[in-house]
TrEMBL record:
This is Carboxypeptidase. Its cofactor is Zn(2+). The keyword Cell division does not apply. GO terms for molecular function: metallocarboxypeptidase activity; zinc ion binding. It comes from the Bacteria. The lineage of its organism: Bacteria, Pseudomonadati, Spirochaetota, Spirochaetia, Leptospirales. Keywords: Carboxypeptidase, Hydrolase, Metalloprotease, Protease, Zinc.
Length: 331
């Protein structure tokens, strides 16, 4: 546990430094608490708001990481990215944040209890990306989520965990009421496969989601216009289906609220970046059970891994500068 807690402290220190660097533009909030550990401790879950009031209210873009406690590579990619864009001296500096044209809503560590304990699941043994309550069509056995025991991986839990509720509340409050905007949210993970995947909904079904055409356009934009050709773009279900994906739940909730309102132009667009860590679960299924296993890349190329995603994340964030009509009319 100690090493995990030290790691968590290290990340939190860097986040405080980012807040200091950003001055008035950065606010750190406590968005919620983790599930209680066996020792009775609840970890605070922090969110960062970066930008002016106008930028955050009208053009919010979300990035989250650390849903799975072992996937610390996503947390480090996110922290590296924030350092890259926040300082006016940096080559990646994003002036739009100061100008009120963009606002970032960040939850850097959704599952701090998992990071501290070095577990994929939260302190209750629940896999948060199996926790939404949605049932999948033909999920991968076991890996797709199970209801047998919290002592085994991929446990779905009973009802939404505190971490899932914190994420849900933040997404709802920050994104669901914003009018006439493109509302992209990226969740950083690592583990599956040998390539980097950029997934859009759904995880639970092969049925295409309402915004499939728009997502495909965004994927072409990333590939052809921004040059991010080393990513595999597509619905998550093209890789595998799972029970309980939280983004499926949020996406469907948004559709329920607005899909019948013709005057509603905003688009809520969750995406998952799954950083490939070069092993194949089909060839080495036992890696699913090993602690370090598939969730972390080999040590030697770690720092290169962190900075490799700066350009992609920057272009992702800049989607928030576009308007729904920019995409829809050109279709
Ligand atoms: Zn993950």
């Amino acid at each position: 546990m100690l090493r995990g807690i030290k790691r968590l402290n290290r990340y939190e220190k860097r986040l405080l430094r980012i807040a200091k660097l950003g001055g008035k533009l950065v606010k750190i909030n406590q968005a919620g608490f983790s599930r209680r550990t066996d020792e009775g401790f609840r970890f605070p879950i922090y969110s960062l708001e970066i930008g002016t009031k106008e930028g955050l209210e009208k053009h919010p873009v979300g990035i989250t990481a650390g849903v799975h406690g072992l996937e610390t590579i996503g947390i480090q990619i996110l922290i590296d990215f924030l350092e890259y864009i926040i300082s006016p001296k940096s080559t990646g500096y994003l002036p739009e944040l100061k100008k009120g044209k963009l606002g970032l809503v960040i939850i850097p560590i959704v599952n701090p209890g998992g990071v501290a304990a070095k577990t994929r699941s939260n302190p209750g043994g629940v896999d948060l990306m199996r926790n939404s309550g949605i049932d999948a069509e033909k999920p991968l056995p076991f890996f797709g989520g199970q209801k047998f025991s919290n002592k085994l991986p991929y446990f779905r839990g009973h009802g939404l965990e505190p971490e899932s509720r914190t994420l849900s509340r933040t997404v709802f409050e920050r994104f669901f009421h914003v009018q006439d905007s493109i509302l992209p949210v990226l969740d950083l993970h690592s583990g599956f496969g040998t390539v980097d995947n950029v997934w859009w909904p759904y995880a639970y079904t092969h049925r295409p989601c309402t915004d499939t055409a728009l997502y495909e356009k965004i994927a072409s934009h990333f590939k052809d216009h921004c040059g991010h050709i080393n990513f595999a773009y597509g619905p998550q279900s093209a890789s595998y289906t799972t029970h309980g994906d939280l983004w499926d739940k949020f996406y469907d909730h948004y559709q329920e609220l607005y899909s019948e309102q013709e005057s509603w132009s905003s688009r809520f667009l969750p995406l998952t970046l799954e950083v490939g860590t070069w092993s194949d679960i089909k060839e080495e299924p036992m890696k699913l059970f090993s602690k370090k296993g598939i969730f972390r890349p080999a040590e030697h190329n770690k720092s290169e891994v962190l900075t490799r995603y700066r350009g992609f994340l920057r272009d992702f964030v800049r989607l928030g500068l576009t308007k729904p009509k920019d995409w829809i009319e050109a279709q």
